[in-house]
């Protein structure tokens, strides 16, 4: 189904979703976005090929669906500025932390709100989004939010809004963990004598191969790991070094800190 979608904020995340939608042939004429300054609106229009402006209210009034894609710290002021322009539009918020009750309150209460936690691979059709809907959202609202999410990748619904913090820790922030790991592997490959280009190509293809294999065979990831590790061979040494450095515990700590930050944003900004 085609509806008019206004993105309030046209930064990294909105840009990734818009590119993903356009890639799926969603009509550019049915997407608008706003930014804070005229210069950034012009940049976004040139990059995305859609109508942009700095007029949140005009975009909201044009839209059937409003995607809130500003920083969490900007969300309250942005919603309060939009409140008079909200009638029957569906609100989709991608802001980390902030709960649907706060968003509805800032917009005037009787509002259907779907909270989405997408990630930047949405830009190339392999995003992963977690969705939660408030009780005002109809089946049609949920279906449209799901349409946006599935146009850009995989999506899962949660019934307990508190789980959005964990989703942020797994998939919202997750791409950055893999990029950090790739960065480290490329650097180590170069240190071991490869050219930067060769190290990069092999690292990226290996990440893609591992994720594709894990997704396509019905084998748990620990068993897939074991199948790479010949007893007394090379991989065993690498895995031993990761375990000696407590990599699994470090990952757990990082994700616990990430989820806690999401909760703190909610506590601080959504009073
Ligand atoms: N970057 C990511 O990987 C992800 C980000 N998010 C969420 O997406 C939201 C946006 O994050 P990013 O895109 O990374 O930030 P960003 O800084 O790249 O983009 C923010 C955008 O908001 C615009 N903006 C600021 N104030 C505005 C206002 N009053 N009216 C209209 N536009 C305004 C800016 O001009 C900019 O285009 C955040 O709430 C974040 O929690 C969610 C999932 C993943
Ligand atoms: O780092 C952040 O706060 C946002 C939310 C999830 C990914 N990026």
Automatic annotation (TrEMBL):
Q: Cite the Pyrroline-5-carboxylate reductase catalytic N-terminal domain residue spans from the record.
A: 5-97
Catalytic reaction(s) noted: L-proline + NADP(+) = (S)-1-pyrroline-5-carboxylate + NADPH + 2 H(+); L-proline + NAD(+) = (S)-1-pyrroline-5-carboxylate + NADH + 2 H(+)
State one molecular function term (GO).
pyrroline-5-carboxylate reductase activity
Q: Does the keyword Oxidoreductase apply?
A: yes
Origin, by domain of life?
Bacteria
* Compartment(s): Cytoplasm
Query: Which keywords does this Swiss-Prot/TrEMBL entry list?
Result: Amino-acid biosynthesis, Cytoplasm, NADP, Oxidoreductase, Proline biosynthesis
Query: What name does the UniProt record give this protein?
Result: Pyrroline-5-carboxylate reductase
Instruction: Specify the Pyrroline-5-carboxylate reductase dimerisation domain's residue ranges.
Output: 161-265
Query: Record's family?
Result: Belongs to the pyrroline-5-carboxylate reductase family.
Q: List each coiled-coil range.
A: none
Q: What does this protein do?
A: Catalyzes the reduction of 1-pyrroline-5-carboxylate (PCA) to L-proline.
Give the matching InterPro entries.
6-PGluconate_DH-like_C_sf, NAD(P)-bd_dom_sf, P5C_Rdtase_cat_N, P5CR_dimer, Pyrroline-COOH_reductase
EC number(s) stated in the UniProt entry for this protein: 1.5.1.2
Cited Pfam families:
F420_oxidored, P5CR_dimer
Q: In which pathway does it act?
A: Amino-acid biosynthesis; L-proline biosynthesis; L-proline from L-glutamate 5-semialdehyde: step 1/1
Organism, per UniProt? Answer: Gilvimarinus gilvus
What top-tier enzyme class does this entry carry?
Answer: oxidoreductase
> Where's it mainly located?
cytoplasm
């Amino acid at each position: 189904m085609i509806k008019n979608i206004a993105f309030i904020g046209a930064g990294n995340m909105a840009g990734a979703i818009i590119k993903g939608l356009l890639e799926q042939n969603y009509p550019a004429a049915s997407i608008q976005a706003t930014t804070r300054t005229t210069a950034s609106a012009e940049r976004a229009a040139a990059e995305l090929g859609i109508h942009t402006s700095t007029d949140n209210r005009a975009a909201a009034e044009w839209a059937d669906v409003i995607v809130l894609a500003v920083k969490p710290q900007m969300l309250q002021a942005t919603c309060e500025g939009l409140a008079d322009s909200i009638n029957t539009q569906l609100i989709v918020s991608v802001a980390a932390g902030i709960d649907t009750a706060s968003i509805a309150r800032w917009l005037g209460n009787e509002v259907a709100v779907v909270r989405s936690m997408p990630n930047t691979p949405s830009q190339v059709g392999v995003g992963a989004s977690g969705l939660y809907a408030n009780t005002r959202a109809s089946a049609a609202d949920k279906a449209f939010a799901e349409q946006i999410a599935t146009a850009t990748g995989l999506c899962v619904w949660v019934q307990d809004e508190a789980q959005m913090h964990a989703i942020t820790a797994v998939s919202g922030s997750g791409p950055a963990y893999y990029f950090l790991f790739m960065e480290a592997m490329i650097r180590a490959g170069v240190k071991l004598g490869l050219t930067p280009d060769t190290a990069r190509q092999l690292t990226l293809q290996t990440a893609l191969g591992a994720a594709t294999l894990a997704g396509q065979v019905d084998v748990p990831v620990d068993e897939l790991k074991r199948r790479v590790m010949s007893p007394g061979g090379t991989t065993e040494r690498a895995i031993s070094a990761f375990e000696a450095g407590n990599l699994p515990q470090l990952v757990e700590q990082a994700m616990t800190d990430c989820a806690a930050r999401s909760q703190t944003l909610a506590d601080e900004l959504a009073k």
